[in-house]
């Protein structure tokens, strides 16, 4: 029986073998080892697209249902299922489509789809124990639907720690921090050559914690502070029947614009009428036109791709321009890194407090030898700086930000799955 490690991420999914090899499960793409965790159901076709082809197909013609960040909904009791072109899809079924595609792509590399899997899960899906258990239960069900028959879970930062440990030649107490798209996970763990490969590593984990802050929230802050006024924040419109009464654009509409997948929910009829009213009576008509087109022409995903690209550029450069021209939306916004960091200050403070809390709880563990940063959002300079300021540059380490978790999950197959399950 074949086994693999599988890191089902909010934005990227990766799979690895027990020897740590991260598999090229997205062949013919710029990043073959990263399978984008997205689905697209076109209106005029029965095919379900997953991964990079879903993005390509959606950008060709966005008539249809595009689903992203589905992992972020796993803990939510209120999100049980969704209607897609008249069929009900449970959240488990949606996740299963992604996991099945990844399993098949892994099988194409190794000869047969793996049946045993060690699946990553955040340290904390939700601070509420019932919601956390629900998320894991749904992920397990999705893995079963995808064809896996032996399923075990491992906390993502522990998996990243195992990847880091593979190249260690001495014992270290390591703080591992994984900054993804949906969550940040932290683990303090004892690592080293003598511990490597032990069947049970629970005793080596000094402490773990997590918080629902990831790249998606950083994108939302850019939207909130830089772009919302261009879509009507702070403007007013006239209420029908009360000719001189003007009201501010409702907060709940603006709040939905902070993440593009929420945006589709404001296309319902009552809000459509509101958008129409704003179009007729806004004190800043160009913002009402931009808002109308953003929502009604389903441009949210495109806009958030641009926001994300600007954020990524600000990790490399001190300044960037966000350019977006679609329908009646015309954005050309200069933004500096310092400005972006000021927008994100509340998130950075929360990350710092979360780290501080873990360190206080683990105070007796001794001196931390190294801090291993991973996950795409660890590339935000202000995030890295939190750790460099606290621990010094020399103790802060990084490797491949996007594949460490998968590599560690793969390596964990050796110690966690009983040997007869592994194809050696
Ligand atoms: N250079 C960069 N600078 C800042 N952010 C980046 C950079 N590159 C990628 N990101 C962000 O990293 C995130 C994706 O990282 P990653 O693949 O580690 O997340 P994930 O594993 O899918 O999410 P999670 O672990 O939370 O489920 C996205 O939010 C993306 O915008
Ligand atoms: Mg991740």
TrEMBL record:
Keyword terms, alphabetized: ATP-binding, Nucleotide-binding
Top-rank taxon, per record: Bacteria
Pfam families (alphabetical): HSP70
ATP-binding in keyword set: yes
InterPro entries per UniProt: ATPase_NBD, Heat_shock_70_CS, Hsp_70_fam, YegD-like
SUPFAM superfamilies reported for this sequence: Actin-like ATPase domain
Entry similarity comment: Belongs to the heat shock protein 70 family.
Name listed for the protein in its UniProt record: Hsp70 family protein
Species in which this protein is naturally found: Hyalangium rubrum
